[in-house]
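Worked Example 4.2. Consider the chain below.
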Amino acid sequence: MLSLLSALALSGCSTMRETAPDRSAREQLLISTAADRAAERLNLKIPAGTYKVTLSREGSNPVTETITVPEGTPRTWAPPPPSPAGTGGAS
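Applying the procedure from the previous section yields the following structure tokens:
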């Protein structure tokens, strides 16, 4: 009886799941590297004022923050780390 119970308990641990992504890891790396290089060349000069900025990404909750760019002062802003999206979304 004990061996039957332990066999049932361990059977759930042996399930294998294989995924087939649309893009290979190498292709994803090439795309992200190209995007990083393009972003480095951007020269975004934001006029002085107050702005509401929203960042969103699939699988994370959007982040909205108000930033103020003072006259004549460069402004840097580091976004907070992403937080997992609420339950019930696509996985």
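The chain has a mean pLDDT of 74. The two ends are 38 Å apart (CA to CA). Compare this with Example 4.1 before moving on.
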